[in-house]
C-alpha cells in the first residue's frame, strides 16, 4: 500500500461532533424557579474540559437575554439566571440547547512550539490527511484545514506535543487487520485541551495501550499510549489541532448561532531543534529539550521539575 494512500485518513468531522456528544448526553441542562421569580439554568456534565453551550428560546416572556452562548467548564455550575422584568410576575420560558467541545473564539497562543508525538531522536515520516468529507458529502475543504499523520517503521510510544489536560479518551476499537487500511472514524483517541482553549486530538492508538486518564495533566514528552498498525510496514498516529470559532451570531434573537471548527497549523521543533511548519511527505527527527517541556509550566510545576 502506498504512502500516499495511507495519508488519506477519515478524520472525524468535528463540525458534527456536537451531535455525537448530544447522543452520549455528556452535558445536561436543568432549570429552577427561584423565590424572587428569577430562573436559574444550570448544567451538569460528565466529561472534563470546556464545552460551548448554545441556548435557543422558543418562548421567553417577562425577561430578556443579550447572550445566548455560554461556556461550561466544571462538572456542575450555573449557566445563566433569567431576571424578571416585572418582579411580581413569573417568567414564561421554553428552550432547547446544543453544545460542542471547546471554548469559543479562544486567544490562540501562537508562540507555542510543539514537539513531534514521539520520543526524542525517533525518525518520523509526516504526511497530510485529506479532508475526506469533501469527497463523501461534497463539502468544501476548510481553508485552514491541517491534519498530520506521523508514521514510524516500528511501533512507538505516542507522546504529548504540548502541556494540557486530558479531557476525553476513547479506547474501545480493535486495531485494523494487518495489510488493510479502513477509512473509519472508529479510532482509539485522546483529546487534550490546552491552556489557551485549543484542543489536540491524537487518533489511532493501539487498543488497551493508553497510559493516561481523563483529568490528568500531561507535559511534552509524556507517554499517552502506543501508535497502531497502519498497513504492512508502518505504525501511525494522526494529530489535529483545533478550536471552536463562532460567527454570524445574532445576539439580539439567538436565532443564528453558527459555529465551525477552526484548524491550526502549528510549528514543531524538529531535528536539532529547528522550528518548522511540517512539509507533506517529509521525514524528521523528533526533538525535545527542557525549554519545551517547561514552556507552559506554572511556578509549582517548575519547582518540582527542576528538583528531578
Summarize the structure.
The protein has 308 residues and is mainly beta. It has helices spanning 3-6, 17-24, 133-137, 290-294, 299-306, and strands spanning 27-33, 39-45, 51-61, 69-72, 76-82, 92-101, 113-115, 123-128, 147-152, 157-159, 164-170, 189-193, 199-203, 217-218, 223-226, 228-229, 235-246, 259-263, 267-270, 274-276, 282-285.
What does this structure look like?
- This protein is mostly beta strands.
- It has two domains: 3-14 and 106-298, Glucose Permease (Domain IIA); 20-101, Sandwich (Immunoglobulin-like), CATH 2.60.40.
- The protein has helices at 3-6, 17-24, 133-137, 290-294, 299-306, and strands spanning 27-33, 39-45, 51-61, 69-72, 76-82, 92-101, 113-115, 123-128, 147-152, 157-159, 164-170, 189-193, 199-203, 217-218, 223-226, 228-229, 235-246, 259-263, 267-270, 274-276, 282-285.
- The strands form five sheets. Strands 8, 9, 11, 12, 13, 14, 16, 17, 18 and 21 form a ten-stranded antiparallel β-sheet that branches.
- A hairpin with a 5-residue loop joins strand 12 and strand 13 (199-203).
- The chain is elongated, with a radius of gyration of 22 Å.
- It starts with a helix and ends with a helix.
Amino acid at each position: 500500500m502506498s504512502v500516499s494512500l495511507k495519508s488519506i485518513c477519515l478524520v472525524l468531522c468535528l463540525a458534527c461532533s456536537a451531535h455525537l456528544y448530544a447522543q452520549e448526553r455528556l452535558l445536561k441542562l436543568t432549570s429552577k424557579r427561584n423565590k424572587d421569580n428569577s430562573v436559574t439554568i444550570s448544567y451538569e456534565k460528565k466529561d472534563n474540559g470546556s464545552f460551548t453551550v448554545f441556548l435557543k428560546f422558543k418562548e421567553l416572556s417577562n425577561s430578556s437575554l443579550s447572550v445566548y452562548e455560554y461556556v461550561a467548564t466544571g462538572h456542575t455550575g450555573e449557566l445563566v439566571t433569567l431576571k424578571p422584568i416585572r418582579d411580581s410576575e413569573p417568567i414564561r420560558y421554553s428552550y432547547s440547547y446544543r453544545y460542542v467541545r471547546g471554548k469559543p473564539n479562544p486567544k490562540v497562543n501562537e508562540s507555542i512550539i510543539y514537539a513531534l508525538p514521539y520520543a526524542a531522536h525517533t525518525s518520523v515520516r509526516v504526511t497530510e490527511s485529506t479532508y475526506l468529507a469533501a469527497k463523501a458529502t461534497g463539502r468544501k475543504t476548510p481553508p485552514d484545514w491541517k491534519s498530520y499523520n506521523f508514521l514510524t517503521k516500528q511501533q512507538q510510544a505516542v507522546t504529548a506535543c504540548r502541556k494540557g489536560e486530558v479531557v476525553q479518551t476513547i479506547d474501545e476499537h480493535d486495531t485494523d487487520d494487518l495489510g488493510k487500511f479502513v477509512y473509519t472514524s472508529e479510532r482509539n483517541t485522546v483529546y487534550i485541551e490546552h491552556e489557551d482553549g485549543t484542543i489536540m486530538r491524537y487518533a489511532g492508538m493501539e487498543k488497551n495501550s493508553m497510559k493516561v486518564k481523563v483529568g490528568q495533566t500531561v507535559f511534552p514528552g509524556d507517554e499517552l499510549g502506543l501508535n497502531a498498525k497502519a498497513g504492512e510496514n508502518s505504525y501511525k498516529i494522526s494529530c489535529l489541532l483545533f478550536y471552536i470559532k463562532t460567527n454570524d451570531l445574532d445576539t439580539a434573537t439567538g436565532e443564528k448561532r453558527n459555529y465551525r471548527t477552526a484548524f491550526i497549523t502549528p510549528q514543531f521543533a524538529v531535528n536539532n531543534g529547528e522550528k518548522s511548519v511540517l512539509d507533506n511527505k517529509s521525514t524528521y527527527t523528533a526533538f525535545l529539550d527542557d525549554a519545551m517541556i517547561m514552556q507552559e509550566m506554572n511556578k509549582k510545576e517548575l519547582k518540582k521539575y527542576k528538583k528531578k
